[in-house]
Amino acid sequence: MNEELLQEFLSIGNNTQEDAESIFRLTTHYLNELKAEEYDPEHATLLEGLVNKMVTICSNLSFDENNLSADLEKNVQTLMAQIGAANKNKNAIILYYNKVFSDTMKFYNLILKHKPKETINIGPFKPNNSDKTKIAFKITEAIELINNSTILKDKIKKKLTSRLTQVITELNNPKTNWNTYFNSVSQTIVLLGALGSIASGSEAAKSLLDSKSKLEEANEEVQKSSITISERDLKEVFVFDETKELNTSHILQLEDGSSKKKKRNK
Predict the structure, then answer these.
(1) pLDDT tens per residue across span 110-157
(2) For 59, which of 52, 163, 173, 225 is 20 to 30 Å away at the CA?
(3) In degrees, to the nearest 5, what angle opens at C-alpha 215 toward C-alphas 251 and 229?
(4) Which fold has domain 3-113?
(5) d(C-alpha 13, C-alpha 11), whole Å
(6) Which of 212, 247, 217 is nearest to 134 (CA)?
């Protein structure tokens, strides 16, 4: 494998949708090269590493279905054994190569299936203006409550908290992917609410509902701190005749960062 592809492999993380899409592209490119080189063992050295990384990313993102990870890893191991065999069976190599390629495409379908929808971006709603430190603090409190829960099994705690930890990592990114935030936090709120309802009546269920409340507070912080109102935003969002009914007596934050009082229309 050439140095450029190796460096790209090393640059891919293990936790985001972007990582999943990147490792898929690199793996399919590598498989195409392997076929072009007629399954030369020297060109197959990184295949297991690529597949293991793809499986890890999809596992971290809870993308795996129907034992696909196990099937893919088994087929890769068989393919590698066939490629490295002293007496090569070309038909067997092609068979397992096609199985690996097919499994890789199935993973891509899972990646697309779980890809968050685009964030609605209208007028004054600019989530990247949010106070991300406060939001991350609320999510950290939720994680602590989940970890301290005595009613959930450890594997369930890990699934819940790993997704929220990814959200905090994303919040620390200057160019936060708000799709990741809204998708993960909203799903976790619904899940915690459901689990809390199932366990209702027990004292231990309180930690689940409290963690749900912390995530709802994080969302409220996004709502509160991501709205920037300006004259242009008002005209973009509201029907002009209706704006005279709006309460615009509060301080308006102008685009240049200054603020002033706007008197209500009489």
Answers:
(1) 877 776 555 555 555 667 778 889 999 999 999 999 999 888 889 889
(2) 173
(3) 20
(4) Four Helix Bundle (Hemerythrin (Met), subunit A) (1.20.120)
(5) 6
(6) 217
